[in-house]
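Format notes (please read before filing issues)

Several people have asked whether sequences and structure tokens are stored in separate files. They are not. Every record keeps both together, in the order shown below: the sequence lines, then the token lines. Line labels are part of the format and must not be stripped during preprocessing.
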Amino acid sequence: MNNLKWTGRWNELKGKVKQQYADLTDDDLLYSEGKEDELLGRLQKKSGKTKEQIEDWLDSL
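Then the structure lines:
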């Protein structure tokens, strides 16, 4: 997982994530430093993808 890459671009990524998964709320996408696993868990639950799939997808955005 490339947390530093995501941290610096999270606001940009958040918009792209919401475009693909409209049912995600701002609370679902709330990023807190040190809580990346919690964020990934919320994305997994809503999308039905694995943690690895979510990480790869975020890296590709």
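For reference, the curators noted about this record: The chain is about 65% helix and 0% strand. The CA atoms of residues 53 and 59 lie 10 Å apart.
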